[in-house]
Design a protein that fits this description.
With 221 residues, the chain is an all-alpha fold. It is built from 11 helices and no strands.
């Protein structure tokens, strides 16, 4: 006999049946635990994931023909990542560790560190390395666009950056430039060679792109 799935309890849980809600939460618990293991802040991630299930349940429409667990995963992952972004000491500790090791490898090997190398030397899973690196890159771009701002505004920018909302409005060439400068962290001259233009052209384009992003930011806050 198959174990009951979350879908068996969705209808009653949405109507306020407490027992059905408890059964639904039991059904998604293994999934939530599995997702939380992607992050070093597992405890915070797991708690945030369970809270996200309730929000997903409120927005879920069974008529769409999607399984509830499938629908809830993006909600849970988003909440788990936000738990990391919200400045927990564990996330800050791990980010600093990654940055130290990254700089050490860069100086030793005269090249950027790979995710595998960072994972091996910090003991963090590759998924955490990728997430923390993306966070740090996003913060650098955010600092260049909006400068020093209160934490709440910075959090809002980070959300927009991670979702690529603002970057998606830029032409492909400008997105490529930002990727080279803020993700690959190449110098303007190298970016100019890769994009087949002059260094002055890269400098001018970068200034224009950041100006446009600042304008988008002002429109959206």
């Amino acid at each position: 006999m198959c174990s009951p799935s979350a879908d068996d309890f969705v209808a009653d849980a949405k109507l306020g049946d407490q027992k059905a809600l408890e059964k639904l939460m039991e059904a998604v618990t293994p999934l939530c635990i599995s997702l939380s293991r992607r992050f070093s802040w597992q405890e915070d991630a797991r708690q945030s994931g369970f809270e996200a299930v309730l929000h997903a349940l409120a927005a879920f429409d069974p008529a769409r023909g999607v399984r509830f667990a499938t629908y809830a995963v993006p909600w849970m992952l988003g909440a788990m990542k936000k738990a990391g972004r919200n400045g927990s000491w564990r996330m800050q500790r791990d980010l600093h560790a990654v940055m130290r090791v990254e700089e050490h490898i860069r100086m030793r090997e005269m090249r950027p560190a790979t995710v595998q190398e960072l994972s091996a030397e910090t003991g963090l899973p590759p998924s955490d390395i990728a997430w923390l690196t993306e966070m740090n890159q996003g913060k650098r771009l955010g600092d260049d666009v909006i400068g020093e701002v209160p934490d709440t505004a910075q959090d809002k920018w980070m959300d927009r950056f991670l979702l690529r909302d603002m970057l998606a409005r830029l032409p492909e060439g400008e997105r490529a430039l930002l990727h080279l400068r803020y993700v690959k962290q190449v110098k303007q001259k190298e970016a100019a060679d890769l994009l087949h233009t002059s260094q002055s052209g890269i400098s001018r384009m970068e200034h224009q792109v950041l100006t446009r992003l600042r304008a988008m930011w002002q429109e959206d806050i």
